Amino acid sequence: MRPADTAAMRSASEPLAFPPRRLAWGPLTLRRLGRTFALYAALLLVAWSLIQSTAGGGLQALALGLIAPGTGFLASADPGNAQAPYAIALAGGSIVFFAAALAIWFASGNVLLPLAVWSGTALAAAIAQPLLASRADAGAWPLALHWVPSGAVFLLLSTSAASLAWHHRNLRARKHLSQRLMRAAPAIVAPSASRDEIDLRLLQQMRLLLDRALQPVDRFDGFQWIDQFQTSAVRYQINVVSYALSMAAHAHLPAFAGYMLTAQRNLADKLLDHRVWRYWRGENLWGNLRADPDPIPRDNIMLSGFLAAQLGYAKAASGLHDFDAPGSLVFAHPSGARYAYSLPTLVDLLVRQYEGAPYGLLACEPNWIYPLCNAVTATAIRCGDAQRGTGHWKRLEPDFRRHLESEFTTAAGRLVPFRSSLTGLAAPQVGGALMQAFPCLFLNAVLPDIARRQWLLVRDDLAPGRARRALWPIDIGNYGISRASSYAAAAAAAVEMGDVEIAACLLEALDQACPLQVIGGVAHRSNASLLAHALELIARFGQADGLRSLVAAPPHAAGQAGPYIKEADYSDLLVAKAVQSDGALLAVLYPGRKAGFRFLTFGGLAPGQSHVAAIGRDYRFMANGQGEARLSLPVFGRTELRIVRSE
Predict the structure, then answer these.
(1) CB 430 within 8 A of CB 370
(2) Least packed by Cβ within 10 Å: which of 149, 409, 568, 617?
């Protein structure tokens, strides 16, 4: 691991203790939970009233079905009924269908499906009741009419009591955690003196990403098309590949435009391909009850926020200015509709959305709010401030912090993986330690004290001998049985937080679990997703506070301080280092397909002046009137190059 190249040292003065808290949940979450339970209590009352006021078997089955999915069939499940096994099977099948509907609601924001399954099974029970009822016991009072309503009330009360007890126990533990955090040793990271180069193995890994980024924009060879709603979505592969290349450019290649800039431009254009964002029309329809296919206006920061971060990072690292002009970011729908934005308007729209967000955080998809998605989006806003001189994040940060602490952090200090903005309900700690660790990578750029506190809480889970148990064995990029993406993402966070020990442990575990193979000069891990490869390179290219310094950087122009590599053919040359020092360009080159003399175009030179290219021997050349020159230089292995104006 390398020390950070950062403008300032991170000190121990950052506050780490949790803010005071009396309630187990935040105020808005409490109101939403109260509304949800009140609605269910009202539904129970309606069902009980219907049961008491009617003797019709169909209506009673309907009432039972309103209490819980599938329970309407239990009206015919008395032991003396010959049809009871069929009724029980139908009830069990209804529960399975409802569980699947809940999973689809979580996966795609389809809020209508669970309601449709619940009401549909209740109606089906009412219709089927005459067929399932016992003729011998017609008119009898089914046992289910006694125990289903009372069981639902008991389950509701006992679950609420257990949840309250658990949360209040966590509130007590919170005080001890705060004391422990206040005693934690300070983490001080000093700025590095210089940038080093990308080694050959890492260049070979980087080629896997570049091969996919530099292919024609309309082709997606090497991307994995599985689903477009969850973590394997192609848009996430595009985002994270771009993030990794930005980290590489920021750390090692600030004086190189060439194919790095082309790769970033291509990746942005790929994300505008309708095949990547067409999921939104359906998701907006069943999640927001709107037919608008425009993916930007609401509840979709998994595209808008991640894209704004992608473009902001690439602008800071490689000088991608293509999407600054009004209307330059166009989502073209096959119907002919065009939804035109730009990077500045995209960021400004996100700012307005945050200003009107009840939860202080935005929905990643309809009705689901993820702290991780919001941490990424916050870096996009902070990045825009650094590049445009605005102060949006400074204005938004207090509310963002307050809501993150109160609504999306448990009493025990753990981040809530995601919460339903409709019901207030949150998932248990799904995702294992990864959902606690990975957000630190992005939080460090916007809320470094919370990132450090969070990291101190989770790092014990990732210690040697524990990480394998703490990280779920699912590669989120292809849903394969592998910890590749988990090791890589957690390592990226560890590097950002300056935790050399944990990062080395995780990357070693990745090497052991998914050995690296090199075929045709391109390195890959055969049982790892493209997303996992990109996450690993964020870790490999990262430095302590590396993303934080990238987000705070002004817009990049490769030649603003002197000579830079403007063009280099990717198939012929691999650039491992390109930095400017005292008016000179320092570069390290490797041959691409084969060794030999290769053309490079240099910019940022003194127009019409003589320069020297030192590459084993000195080559003198003249820059043209635009301060550019095209040279053929020998590259037969690792080659050091120095470009300087001659005296």
Answers:
(1) no
(2) 617
